[in-house]
Amino acid sequence: MRVLVTGGAGFIGSHVVDALVARGDEVVVVDDLDPAAHDGKPAGLSSGAEYAWRDVRDPATWRDLLGGVDAVSHQAAKVGLGVDFADVGEYVSRNDAGMACLLHALHDRRFRGRVVLASSMVVYGEGRFRCSSHGVVRPGPRRVDDLEAGRYEPPCPTCAGPLTPEPVPEDHWLDPRNVYAVTKLSQELLGAAYAREHPGVTITSLRYHNVYGPRMPRDTPYAGVASIFRSAYAAGRRPLVFEDGGQRRDFVHVADVARANVLALTNDEPAPGPFNVCSGTPRTILDMANALRPPNGQAPEIVGGYRLGDVRHVFADPQRAADVLGFRAAIGFDRGMHEFQTAPLRSADGDRPP
Q1: For 316-324, what is the mean pLDDT?
Q2: Which residue, 75, 109, 195, 303, is most buried by CB atoms nearer than 10 A?
Q3: How far, in Å, CA of 57 to CA of 263, rounded?
């Protein structure tokens, strides 16, 4: 099988490439090595793939790369919360315009195969919450005055009582709370619209939860929290934990995420729609900071505060991915975090290709 992997030089994309090459698939990678994420050509790229250093938003990219392609893994994206709202143009361009250009090219080629989209749990916004009096409720965005006063838990919108967070299933309401989240939902919707108009095409949206593992980008505004904490420990600093550290997330190892992509691309039956890609065992941010602490490292520092656009709790129900894709995470939290303490982070292996 010939598979196109966009963003295949990135953190998750490079692991997807490795998994496909190990199967014996023919893999072609398109990646423009965005300077916000890459200092040069990344180390550790598979020698078994073909690389085209091009921008997915450029129509010229697709003139000679889609021939014979049987399936597409679309990992290219600008990720994270970014610096501030000034990043909006780059997020919309790289994520939404990039998705649109890829789909346009597939349309022109009369592509009839599977497309796997790297989506995200951020499309849910706050996770699923239950009030003891009013059942499952939808809390509004957290108020700045509550956050500044250290009241981090969202209250019931009806009675203002306490809420209990629950795992989020794929059919839960969607409520993106920041620019990145909005672009990921837009990508899903563009994919769904494309599939409706192209019989024979399956779009599978994999909603990644908090992915960590080897080749994570280092401490930048676009890096994941696991990498930021790991970099702090490596520099001899205490990692700074916002709020009270009680925010719950689902941390899933990148090797498991790559395996979920391969299953979506290769299972006997195509699997349209969204799937949570998660471990199924939520942990707090403070749990992760402590798990990454090296033997002689200082304890993490809880600093309070908050990040606008962030949410309190979001963790996933893994059942649909297990039932339909046959996917269950194999690398548990303790093992994965222990290995990540010393795993190689992203590094450059030469200058940026022309």
Answers
A1: 98
A2: 75
A3: 27
